[in-house]
Amino acid sequence: MTIVKPIKEDDLIQCLSRLHKELIVGTNERCLLIKHRGITILCKHSEIVYFAGDGPYSTIFMVNETITTARTLKSLEPELGVGFIRIHKSYLVNKACIKGFNKDKLILQNEQSLPVSRTGLKKLNFFLE
User: Fold this and answer.
1) What share of the chain is helix, strand, coil (3-state, %, to 5)?
2) I need a labelling partner for 7 at 20 to 30 A (CA). Which of 65, 70, 96, 120 fits?
């Protein structure tokens, strides 16, 4: 993200937060910092399968665990980048975990299925092109 003058406080905070995350991780692998029960957890993008939103909360389904956080999908989405796709108002999926899809459901590599909205289907079709 580029910061232009005049600098907005929120943009500066987001930029510094991303820099801090990159310095903490020390690798090229992208991570998401999530606060869960008073602890900040480092979630590697490669270990996240999908997010399920439920109002002001989101549940992160990872390869080995599930974490619930007091953040919306909308607030998480910009931090994830192009490796994730919003397939439904309540679901955000790691593209690397997609096995296949049809007009109303998406199949993950672990054989789990998630609903797909019409807008999500358009995004999936664009993703494949």
Assistant:
1) 35, 40, 25
2) 70
Query: pLDDT band at residue 51, thresholds of 50, 70 and 90?
Result: very high
Q: Are 97 and 109 in contact (CB under 8 A)?
A: yes
- What's the pTM? 0.73
Distance in angstroms (rounded) separating the CA atoms of residues 44 and 127: 22
- Give 45's contacts (C-beta < 8 A, 6+ positions apart): 29, 30, 31, 32, 80, 81, 83, 84, 94
What count of other Cβ atoms lies within 10 Å of the Cβ of residue 45? 16
Residues in CB range of 41: below 8 A, 6 or more apart = 33, 34, 35, 67
Return the closest-CA partner of residue 59 out of 114, 2, 121: 114
Identify which of 67, 61, 63, 113 has the alpha carbon closest to the alpha carbon of residue 87: 113
Cβ–Cβ < 8 Å for 80, 32 = yes
